[in-house]
Amino acid sequence: MRIIIIGAGIGGTSAGIALKRLGHDVVIYDQMRENRPVGAALSLWSNGVKVLNWLGLGDEVAALGGRMDHMAYLDGHTGELLTRFSLAPVTTQTGQRPYPVARADLQALLMERFGLDDIRLGRRMVSLDEQDGRVTATFADGSTDTADLLLGADGARSITRDYVTQAEPRIERTYSGYTNFNGLVPVDSAIGPADHWTTYVAEGRRAAVMPVADDRFYFWFDIPQPAGLPYDRSDGKAPLLEAFGGWAPGVQALLAAIDPAVSLNRVEIWDIDPFHTWVRGRVAILGDAAHNTAPDIGQGACSALEDAFVLGIVFATNTVSVEDTLARYERARTERAGDLVLRARRRGDETHGYDPDVTRAWYDSLRGSDGAGIIRGIVGNIEGSPVNLGAGAL
């Protein structure tokens, strides 16, 4: 069977690998001209890593991942330690160590494993049409391609989603209330220990680092603010110096380490209300096209990997028709993916000071905590994953 995938991100390439392993003829199109992903890094929690293990990439992903053994929260103003605890229970209960990874490294690995000869870059899809059991994609350069089915992994502004959901009100994104700055810096103990996920919190803002491969920290800052504020690349880290200039010494060390010319991204955080129409005939969506999720629980990429896992399983085990198989994929995924969107939204509401009393209560709960509640939350996001085959966590 010939399959077109639109989008060479984490979801599109992982789905492509899964379907190629079943013997299908798969080609991926993407409008990007080179591997330049949005965002410096991502959290691969145990459910996402398990999908990559299933795809035969376990050793490579472990090599890309940072050794994140502990989590710590500190007061953003004073640097006082609020809590520090081991993340070993996550591994013990889920059966897999989580890994923070540089996004470009993971995407390059997935693209290479899929097969660079079957990836067409610089090709932006502008429309699609299905007739007589065939789907045709038309691209901005006037070219077309036709296949037995098309999967849209084309992101938060998905054209494929517009096609799939055209009988419903147009699906719009919702602003999450904050802007995220992120990038990569060398590991520095003045910022935090090399094996820790370290987060400084105050005033509804966060400054955090996670270890990734090659002795680097993935860093991010969250600033609650209105959408649409002007920012130019030449502004560099000026907004960070303004928002975090009076913070603790560890944050100052992080700010000093950032070279905007090397690694600094600014992203307004939006999500999409859960919806349950992911399929129309022989066209389906996955990843951010289906469940654009705020990063507050680190499950966006993991959820896209779960999509790829389920697509692989349903196409390996169902034989009635393409339409039937895609309907089973939709039924298996929409509820869980939507739940993760809402979990991330609730977490963001709690941590970003939209209700100061709620965020203050969260800060108070961190002080002296043994981390058990945080571990429960992390594992709770993982245990319902389809990759666990119904076994959940131990």
UniProtKB/TrEMBL annotation:
SUPFAM superfamilies: FAD/NAD(P)-binding domain. Pathway: Purine metabolism; urate degradation. Its cofactor is FAD. Keywords: FAD, Flavoprotein, Monooxygenase, NAD, Oxidoreductase, Purine metabolism. Gene3D superfamilies: FAD/NAD(P)-binding domain. InterPro entries: FAD-bd, FAD-dep_Monooxygenase_BioMet, FAD/NAD-bd_sf, HpxO. Residues 3-341 form the FAD-binding domain. This is FAD-dependent urate hydroxylase. It comes from Microbacterium ulmi. The gene is hpxO.
